TrEMBL record:
It is found in: Cytoplasm. This is Cyclic nucleotide-binding/CBS domain-containing protein. The keyword Nuclease does not apply. InterPro entries: CBS_dom (IPR000644), CBS_dom_sf (IPR046342), cNMP-bd_dom (IPR000595), cNMP-bd_dom_sf (IPR018490), Diverse_CBS-Domain (IPR051257), DUF294_put_nucleoTrafse_sb-bd (IPR018821), GlnD_Uridyltrans_N (IPR005105), RmlC-like_jellyroll (IPR014710). The lineage of its organism: Bacteria, Pseudomonadati, Pseudomonadota, Gammaproteobacteria, Lysobacterales.
């Protein structure tokens, strides 16, 4: 079929189509003429076409609550507009021709069918950034990208074999061999829910506990069950097993047990070395061995990123592995008999589970009020030094457990939190913001809830919240008057201009509403649930964070390849055209959110 003049199908997003999709597009596309001043797409309505601009200039604008048109962006030849209006049935912006324009018109029905038939192109639009710019037409990468949307129910599940808790070890071993499974679900009259016994559990019962073959397996069962739903993404199962250091999870479909899923079945779908990293970490007996096991982390993240893994999944997996690393170093530094008296907290991006590449140490310690341990300071110095050796550099602000300021007894924590109530700026406000993202990862987690309760009680102080939320407006959104991305000599600092306003604004709103979650996405969902955020803003904010994280990660890997230290800067000039449009769109979401925070907390710029 002859190509359509002016429509280059080798450029994104059309390079993500298969041959059949390209042929369908060429057959159905039409030419449109738009006189100067005419509206191509109107906000609030659907669009009969997706529009690819061939010649001319189109302005996108939105009308504010006073009826004034606010310029959003300019689009020229090669730009695609109207995709969201076709997919969602409602345009967010209006588009007006500046002078006469020519375009290619893709019928809405054709476009929807192209998305249905081409998962990579659907991911491009549905995920915001997802695989755009990373996927070629090669089959290897196409298959890798599609693995990121495989559901647990599509995997090769093992049958769920059920036995009574009175079953003997000998009979249970025979059942495992007969059914060719690795675990049994154990139902016991004395327990409200089933437990699980694995082949390893039976082996340890015989060899280490020296139990007789006729001993019942009920007491050996592990509870509660680690479960995952059939509708969850398979990659999530990998995260769960990595974080919990287990080899198998129970798969549920509603209230029904559908089967079990083991690490072997998961790894059959993924060319990932994360499980090998976790195994090596579990076996490590020194900081050097931990560092060697963790050395593959950056390579793992690079591989997942190149294959189109979604940012939230990558961050959860990295968080799980970081947690394993920190717990192993903690166990080397803190004697077993002292661990009940201390609780290790991670804070900042690690506390929110929003870390990708290793960054500064942000941690603290909650001590039991009656702890008497002369060797505490030395152990914490050993722990911090161990993290640095593995690749987590010391925090410039000294937010670390080897700093006495960040290791306190429970009562001292509550006293410090009471002081933060009366400090409306400076280091105190910074310390409070960091602490609000804290979560326990090692030691005695029961020491943390009273500290968490004291932090959440600050949400009732509107004066404190007003001052704390003011930091959301501290850094201006890097957009020019005409909606273009503003960039300095080093590029755009996407942490200051994009990530921080969203993260901190959500943190403050969550504190006001008593939301205990630490992750930005979880906070956002809870704020929509309680009516603080609109569903539209609740959908767009996590998407904007995904865009910023993806682009920053790409820039950081580029810096590493060029021998430079990775930072938070993105050079818009090095982005592909559609990536620049996506970044601009995400920054406008930040702008809208800042306006919401300003109104909610009665702030001034």
């Amino acid at each position: 079929m002859d190509p359509v003049p002016g429509l280059d199908l080798s450029l994104p997003p059309f390079d993500l189509l298969d041959d059949a999709g390209r042929q369908r597009l060429q057959a159905d596309v039409d030419i449109g003429f738009h006189p100067g001043g005419s509206t191509l797409i109107e906000a609030g309505r659907d669009s009969p076409h997706v529009v690819v601009i061939l010649k001319g200039l189109v302005h996108a604008f939105q009308v504010d609550d006073r009826g004034r048109a606010e310029r959003f962006a300019d689009y020229g030849p090669g730009d695609v507009i109207g995709a969201w209006a076709v997919m969602a049935g409602r345009a967010r912006l209006s588009y007006r021709a500046e002078g006469d324009c020519l375009s290619h018109l893709i019928p809405a029905a054709t476009f929807r069918q192209l998305l249905a038939d081409n998962p990579r192109m659907a991911a491009y639009f549905n995920e915001g950034l997802a695989t755009k710019g990373r996927l070629s037409s090669g089959s290897e990468r196409r298959e890798a990208a599609e693995l990121m949307v495989i559901r647990v129910g599509e995997a090769d599940l093992a049958p769920a074999e059920r036995v009574d808790g009175a079953t003997s070890i000998a009979d249970a071993s025979a059942r495992l061999r007969e059914r060719r499974v690795d675990c049994l679900l154990v139902y016991d009259r004395e327990q409200d829910a089933p437990g699980i016994v694995t082949r390893t559990d039976l082996l340890e019962a015989l060899t280490h506990k020296r139990l007789p073959l006729d001993a019942p397996i009920g007491p050996l069962a592990s509870r509660p069950l680690a479960t995952i739903g059939t509708g969850e993404v398979l990659f999530q199962a990998l995260i769960e097993m990595t974080e919990r250091q287990i080899e198998r999870v129970v798969v549920t479909e509603g209230s029904r047990v559908a089967g079990t899923l083991g690490m072997a079945e998961v790894l059959a779908h993924f060319a990932s070395h994360s499980h090998l990293i976790s195994l090596r970490l579990a076996r490590a007996q020194s900081v050097d061995e931990i560092a060697e096991a963790a050395s593959g982390m950056t390579r793992l993240v690079r591989s997942l990123n190149l294959h189109g893994a979604r940012i939230p999944y990558m961050m959860e997996l990295v968080s799980a592995l970081n947690g394993l690393i920190m717990r192993r170093i903690f166990e080397l530094a803190v004697p077993a008999e002292r661990r009940d008296g201390v609780c290790l907290l991670v804070m900042g991006s690690e506390g929110r589970r929003e870390q990708l590449l290793k960054t500064d140490q942000d941690n603290a310690l909650v001590l039991a009020d009656d702890l008497d341990w002369p060797g505490l300071a030395e152990a914490m110095e050993q722990f911090s030094a161990g993290l640095a050796k593995v690749g987590y550099p010391p925090c410039p602000g000294r937010v670390m457990v080897d700093n006495p300021h960040w290791r306190m007894r429970g009562g001292e924590w509550r006293e410090r939190i009471g002081q933060w109530r009366h400090v409306h700026g400076g280091q105190g406000a910074l310390d409070l913001s960091i602490a609000l993202d804290a979560r326990p990862i090692a030691g005695n987690a029961a020491l943390f809830p009273p500290v968490k309760d004291a932090l959440m009680a600050l949400g009732r102080d509107e004066i404190l919240l007003h001052h704390l939320a003011g930091a959301t407006l501290e850094f201006a959104t890097p957009l020019t008057f005409f909606g273009r991305v503003r960039s300095g000599g080093a590029g755009t600092d996407i942490k200051k201009g994009g990530i921080f306003p969203v993260v901190h604004g959500l943190r403050c709103l969550a504190l006001r509403h008593g939301i205990t979650a630490t992750g930005s996405r979880e906070r956002c969902a809870a704020l929509v649930e309680c009516g603080e955020l609109s569903p539209g803003l609740g959908r767009d904010l996590p998407q904007a964070l995904n865009v910023f994280q993806h682009m920053r990660l790409d820039a950081q890997f580029a810096a590493l390849a060029e021998g430079r230290a990775p930072d938070n800067h993105i050079d818009p000039a090095r982005l592909r055209r559609l990536d620049r449009e996506l970044m601009r769109d995400a920054l406008h979401v930040v702008k809208d959110f800042r306006a919401h925070v300003r109104s909610s907390f009665h702030l001034r710029d």
